[in-house]
Every structure is written in C-alpha cells, then in structure tokens.
Amino acid sequence: MSTQEELLDAITWVAAQGWTPATGGNFSARMPQGYLITASGRDKTRIQAEDLLLCDAIGLVLDGTGLPSAESELHAALYRLDADIGCVLHTHSVAATVLSRRHPEGVRFTGFEMQKALQGNRTHDASILLPVVPNSQDMADIAAAVKAKWPMPWGFLVAGHGLYAVGEDVATCRRHLEGLEFLLACVLEEERWQR
C-alpha cells in the first residue's frame, strides 16, 4: 500500500470514529517532495485521493486543487522540527477538546494498559504527560509553543481545539492517535464519575 493509500485509509477510519465533525481535522504524511495534506473544507467521511494536496517543506502547494488545510503551516513546522516525523493526524474529539481546556498543564495518564500503545512504553506503571499548548488562529504561534515543549514523541493537545498525533509513519501515527484518544476518553470518564 502506498503512503497516499495508507493516509486515505487512516482518514476514513478516523472519520468513522466521529473525530472529524463539520469537516474538522487535518491529516498529512511526509513525502520526498514535502508532504501530502488534506485540502481545506473536505468532508473526511468521503475522502478521496483528489482531496489531498502535495505541498513543499514550507507549505506551498505543488500539486492538487484547492487550498491546503488552514493548519497546513503547523504540519510543515512539525516536519521541519523533527526529521523522524512521517505522519501527523489531527482530530477534534470531545475528550481531547474538553480535557485540553480542563488541564492546561497537560493530561496525565497513569496505570492504563493502553499506555503501551505509545512507542517506547512497555508498562502500565509509567506516568505519561500529554502536553497542552495554547490555541491561536496564527499557526506560527502554535508552532512556536510546540517547539518550546519539544520533544513530544506521540503528540500534543491544543487547548480547546483537539489532538495532534505524530509518528514515524502512517501506521505508527494511527496507533498513537487511537491509543491517545482511548486514554483521553478514559480520563474524561473517570473525571465524570469523580464529581
């Protein structure tokens, strides 16, 4: 399966989870010429190859029609920041959005078996912090906040916005995204029951 096919498959799966409401979310994969990214305003439940744009390392469109996602600049900044990032998947789940507002210092996971889905973790006994960066309509501001807290090996939350998962390739990024979304849902449910 090509990188483009893997990315389309991941987007379709993510959309089926309900994590891309109202055309939200954006998804990209590194390519030799730059990166593939979803075009702005596309319904992720009906994503097709023509909904992906090829951009260069600074985010200029090389191939495809339409405008790149409004957050393309942040994807480009992530690829420039870390050569090991091969994919970025960004969702707008309820759990990620709510918890990013409730925990501006970051969301901590402790004692969950699913923590082992995150590359480098071999035990549920670890305590893991998923960082939160402030939201902004200026992607350069978010990129600067991410750079200041780097490294963030599995991703980060943007306050009141959602989750950005990263990985060395589409499959790893998708696993990180699924694991983090599960962990966020668990924390949200625990907090609900603690009230």
TrEMBL record:
Cofactor(s) for this UniProt protein: Zn(2+)
Entry EC number(s): 4.2.1.109
Domain of life: Bacteria
Keyword line: Amino-acid biosynthesis, Lyase, Metal-binding, Methionine biosynthesis, Zinc
Gene field: mtnB
Family: Belongs to the aldolase class II family. MtnB subfamily.
An example molecular function term from Gene Ontology annotations: methylthioribulose 1-phosphate dehydratase activity
Pfam family, one: Aldolase_II
UniProt xrefs under InterPro entries: Aldolase_class_II_sugar_metab, Aldolase_II/adducin_N, Aldolase_II/adducin_N_sf, MethylthioRu-1-P_deHdtase_MtnB
Known role: Catalyzes the dehydration of methylthioribulose-1-phosphate (MTRu-1-P) into 2,3-diketo-5-methylthiopentyl-1-phosphate (DK-MTP-1-P).
Reactions performed catalytically: 5-(methylsulfanyl)-D-ribulose 1-phosphate = 5-methylsulfanyl-2,3-dioxopentyl phosphate + H2O
GO CC list: cytosol
Name by which UniProt lists this protein: Methylthioribulose-1-phosphate dehydratase
Pathway(s) served: Amino-acid biosynthesis; L-methionine biosynthesis via salvage pathway; L-methionine from S-methyl-5-thio-alpha-D-ribose 1-phosphate: step 2/6
Transmembrane residue ranges: none
Co-factor note (free text): Binds 1 zinc ion per subunit.
GO biological process: L-methionine salvage from methylthioadenosine; pentose catabolic process
Keyword Lyase applies: yes
